[in-house]
Amino acid sequence: MREFANLVLNESEKIYRKKRIFVVMLILAILIPLFVYAQYREIETTQKRLGTTDWKVSLQQQIVDSQNRLNNSRLPEEWRDWLKVRVEQQQYYLDHDINPMAPGAPTFVRAFIEQGITLFIPLLVMIVAIDIVSGERSDGTMKMLLTRPIRRWKILLSKYVTMLFFISLILLLVGLFAYILSGLVFGYSGWNLPVLTGFVIDKETLNTNFVHLIPQWQYILMAYGLAWFVAIVVGTISFMVSVLIRNTPAGMGVMLAALIAGGILSSFATSWEGAKYIFSVNLSLTDYLSGKLPALQGLSMGFSLMNLTVWAVVSLIISFVVFTKQDMVN
Q: Which residues cross the membrane (predicted)?
């Protein structure tokens, strides 16, 4: 056990020396203030346009705007379905006197996790995970590591455990940066604000039979749990790519293309049944919490969780089989 702990500590030191976690912190320190400013400007512009700070007026105007768009006969059918669900959901909030986007750092954190779960957070994870094996093959340190009297599977497991730790650290940093920086503008209150969840999309219509109120802190914990699961899956797939592809930039290109493909397929392959089995199409797990229309027909929370779990398990098996059986030095 002590030997394995030393391996994990050694792998952690390698990632620390590569300054990858500092790159993640720098990205967060630059981009999150931009996102905060963009949201602040959007709120300010909306209030000026409507001439009031009343959230009900703003929400009512959004409903009217969506209904006007629905009257456009040239609106694509998938957009029409999405707008119908959105209008029903917004009307439900209005009828029950609940502001879905009350200003505050917790609300910003919630929105940031919901928006970042499909691409931003996976990209941060990829920065750490993509060269955890391939990087050592490129610089020659893998040969030195494999000459030690330690089983290969134990070496790879130590790398995987280290990756899981740093993925968790990245999620923690995302939350801290988002909360602290947005709180400077919006304030730090709002943890106990009521949030509606339990919306169910039934044949492209909104079913509100299971809707219930929960405090915002509980919703954020649920969203964070889903984001952590997505990060683990993306990290595990990146881990497999790092084992299979020796060149780190090439591996990064493969993962980046796979992540971007999810968004493209969600928009342009709505009639292709096989698209829903691609992992990057199933990353928007928080949509099921908020009641948004799934990216493709046939998707559900259960299906997406199972799909991502299978991808992660298969990727992990491939990683260990290849690493323990093949020549990882030359």
A: 21-40, 116-135, 156-181, 219-244, 256-279, 299-323
